[in-house]
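To illustrate the input format used throughout this study, we show a single complete record. The first block contains the structure-token representation of the backbone; no residue identities are included at this stage. The design step must infer an amino acid for every position from geometry alone.
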């Protein structure tokens, strides 16, 4: 069966659906996935590195290594 023929058949089936077709089927429940625990070994360090440049207080820029 060619793709065009399959699309035509699918379109014909979808256009013949009624509201009753949607009411009779119950939605399937989605599987419950276990929640991931947060990794606590990595902790954010808050640094207060401020520099005054041309009279304006700015954060210090760091170079990438």
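Output of the design step:
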């Amino acid at each position: 069966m060619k793709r065009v023929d399959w699309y035509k058949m699918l379109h014909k089936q979808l256009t013949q659906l009624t509201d009753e077709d949607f009411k009779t089927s119950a939605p399937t429940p989605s599987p419950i996935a276990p929640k991931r625990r947060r990794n606590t070994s990595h902790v954010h360090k808050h640094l207060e590195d401020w520099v005054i440049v041309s009279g304006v207080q700015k954060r210090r820029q760091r170079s990438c290594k």
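Structural context for interpreting the output: The CA atoms of residues 20 and 42 lie 54 Å apart. DSSP finds two helices and two strands in the chain.
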